[in-house]
Design brief:
Elements (H helix, E strand, L loop, with lengths): L1 H29 L3 E8 L1 E7 L5 E8 L12 E7 L6 E17 L2 E12 L7 E12 L4 E13 L6 E13 L2 E13 L3 E8 L4 E3 L5 E3 L27 E3 L4 E8 L7 E10 L2 E11 L10 E8 L1
Parallel strand pairs: 2-8
Antiparallel strand pairs: 1-3, 1-18, 3-6, 4-5, 4-7, 5-6, 7-8, 9-10, 10-15, 11-14, 11-16, 12-15, 13-15, 16-17
């Protein structure tokens, strides 16, 4: 009888233990993954300077506040890549901060500002289109989201030529206000021969054939510099050399691939000085303000848990 009682107690204990184990497994395997949406907007990023302060700020909107996806402690690596990851730009997180709640598409999202530092220096103008932000986690998983285009250039300071005035001329095309041309006043030590002008945006090219030097008296009415029949769509023509003297105004004529608004632009002037090729950088500048710039929204959905 005592033997049966002992076995009965053992059977009860074993049954309770098995019940807890099975219950725990059911809870574990029936736990639902939480879907977290991440949104950003394609933008043009410029990392163009003469020092090592190479920063960009990427806005991120997440549907789950304090998600592990934006937890710095959970992140093992972060970089910028192209679609097939044949080009990799190492970056480091400077700051990841919560800004505010926003409503988008009838949902609440939490806006974060991700400040990144480019971890290496590029000494020639490099333009990368369709760049992805790739965030890897200690869990061996990763998130990759398209953030836009980036222009990189760590240039040397140049005292042979500098600009003292910079103005943008805009016009409306297909209901878009677009930068048609740039008027820049140049001061030089010697006369210079400009042989090429590059835009820092791959959607823009320079029509050097339609670019020219102006006297100061010709710059009073900027609208007069725009030809009403000027076709802003197309590719630039570089078959022209422009001689610059100190104090000259240079009108730079722009061409676009499509009707897009790009209020912030920068340029690289390549010129000959005493038979030596040099470059002068016009750093990215906001030539006009607008609230109508259309940014393409990019969204990824990631299952957390």
């Amino acid at each position: 009888m005592n033997f049966l009682k002992k076995n009965y107690k053992i059977i009860i204990y074993i049954s309770l233990i098995l019940l807890f184990i099975v219950g725990g497994c059911l809870i574990l395997f029936n736990k639902k993954s939480e879907k977290c949406e991440i949104i950003t907007f394609k933008n043009d990023y410029y990392v163009v300077n003469s020092d090592k302060n190479n920063y960009i700020n990427v806005p991120l909107y997440v549907s789950v506040k304090d998600s592990i996806l934006i937890d710095k402690e959970e992140i093992s690596n972060i970089c910028l890549v192209n679609d097939i990851e044949s080009e990799i730009i190492p970056v480091s997180i400077v700051e990841l901060s919560f800004l505010k709640e926003v409503d988008y598409d009838n949902k609440t999202f939490y806006q974060y500002d991700l400040k990144l530092e480019i971890d290496f220096i590029i000494n020639n103008l490099t333009i990368l289109d369709d760049v992805y932000l790739k965030i890897s986690y200690h869990s061996m998983e990763f998130v990759k989201i398209l953030i836009g285009n980036i222009s990189l250039y760590n240039y040397s300071l140049n005292d042979q030529v500098y600009y003292t005035s910079l103005k943008g001329i805009t016009n409306n095309y297909e209901n878009n206000e677009m930068l048609v041309g740039v008027l820049v006043k140049l001061e030089t030590i010697n006369d210079l021969n400009i042989v090429e002008i590059k835009s820092m945006n791959s959607n823009v090219s320079i029509d050097l054939e339609k670019s020219y030097v102006l006297d100061e008296c010709e710059t009073n009415d900027l609208k007069d510099l725009i030809n009403e029949n000027y076709n802003i769509i197309g590719s630039g023509n570089s078959n022209n050399d422009i001689v610059i003297k100190s104090g000259d105004y240079l009108f730079i004529s722009l061409k676009y691939k499509d009707y897009v608004q790009i209020p912030i632009q920068g340029f690289v002037l390549k010129y000959l000085n005493n038979e030596e090729m040099n470059e002068k950088v016009i750093t990215p500048f906001m030539f006009y303000k607008t609230n109508n710039v259309k940014r393409e929204m990019v969204k990824v959905v990631y299952e957390v848990g």
